[in-house]
Amino acid sequence: MPRAALVTGSTSGIGLGIATALAGAGYDVMLNGFGTEAEIAALVSSLSSHGVRVSHHPADMSDPAQVAALVEATVSAFGRLDVLVNNAGIQHVARTEDFPAERWDAVISINLSAAFHATKAALPHMQRRGWGRIINIASTHGRVGSEGKCAYVAAKHGLIGLTKVVALENANAGITANAICPGWVETALVQRQVAARALEGGISEAEAAERLVGEKQPMKRFTRPSSVGALAVFLCSDAAETITGSEQVIDGGWTAQ
Ligand code: NAD
User: Fold this and answer.
1) Which of 25, 45, 173, 217 is 20 to 30 A away from residue 105, measured at CA?
2) EC (predicted)?
3) Any atom of ligand 1 within 6 Å of the Cβ of 9
4) pLDDT (tens digit, 9 = 90+) per residue, 139-152?
5) How, if at all, do strands 132-137 and 28-32 pair?
6) Which fold has domain 4-185+224-252?
7) Whose C-alpha lies nearest to ligand 1, atom 13?
8) Ligand 1 nearest atom to the CA of residue 138, by list position
9) What is the pLDDT of residues 32-56, one digit of tens each?
């Protein structure tokens, strides 16, 4: 029976890159995230072309009960759960004194608490089989701060802390837990920031994107979602069996400075 993976927030961007790479590596995949019925059907069909089983569950990651239901739906669909990728995330940019409390709560629940709820529900299934991979999509913002991103930076630092504890608690259970810390990746989440900056500065989106990346990264180019997917597949491999509790940096040199 092939191994099964659940990737939260995988209808676009990095999550889709990871789900595609896992399907390509032979994992059955449970997709999750928003999209129209037609968009989701197209994704399921595209990933199924790898000869694996693919399904989608619409759980809203801000609701703990739906997160637990998503994990159980994955086990029902595939009979097992071997890989959990906590990827769903949102962003909100505002100075702390102006940051809406409701946006703080939403960022913390989707970017941090959902990973706790999914991990809690997934661990017994992995422990039963003595094998598991938990991959938390953190960020450079789990390692350093940036102005305007108090909730996101707090959530991503917290996610790295959660990763370390889960790694320690399962160090001899055949289960690894690692964080991936990307710099700028070309996705809808970043595109919204680029569009806002272009509007604000009266500049083209191409110029806004170049400035955004250049402000932080010595390497002035975006990471591809497929590259993050390849890194996740490596973390699931036997070669990565002793990599646990780590921060896998893929950031164009951002945090080397
Ligand atoms: P994206 O906006 O392209 O995709 C986000 C995905 O999450 C979508 O599938 C969306 O439907 C889903 N989602 C959002 N809210 C949800 C909810 N409440 N319930 C279920 N699904 C939900 O974003 P992305 O850039 O691919 O970001 C994915 C992850 O990578 C996030 O955790 C983000 O913080 C992280 N990240 C992104 C970058 C970057 O530069 N893009 C860099 C570092 C880390």
Assistant:
1) 217
2) 1.1.1.100
3) yes
4) 999 999 999 999 99
5) unpaired
6) Rossmann fold (3.40.50)
7) 9
8) 44
9) 999 999 999 999 999 999 999 999 9
pTM: 0.97
Model pLDDT, residue 189: 87
| pLDDT-based confidence at residue 1 (cuts at 50, 70, 90) | confident
The percentage of the chain sitting over the pLDDT mark of 90, rounded to a whole number, equals 98
Give Cα separations from 94 to 39, 47, 104, 153, 202 (angstroms). 31, 37, 10, 12, 19
Write out the two tokens for 14: 């990095």
- Residue recorded with tokens 């619409």: 58
Q: Is 252 in the pocket of ligand 1 (CB under 6 A)?
A: no
Instruction: Delimit the CATH 3.40.50.720 region(s) of the chain.
Output: 4-185+224-252
CA-closest residue to ligand 1 atom 21 = 33
Known catalytic residue: 152?
Answer: yes
Distances (CA, A) of 108 to 33, 40, 80, 178, 203: 17, 26, 28, 19, 32
pLDDT at residue number 54: 98
Q: 217 in ligand 1 pocket by Cβ < 6 Å?
A: no
Q: Where are the alpha helices (DSSP H) in the chain?
A: 13-24, 37-48, 64-78, 101-108, 114-129, 150-169, 188-201, 205-216, 225-235
- State the catalytic residue, choosing from 152, 184, 222, 254: 152
90 contacts: CB under 8 Å, gap ≥ 6: 106, 107, 110, 111, 189
Ligand 1 neighbourhood includes 189 CB (under 6 angstroms): yes
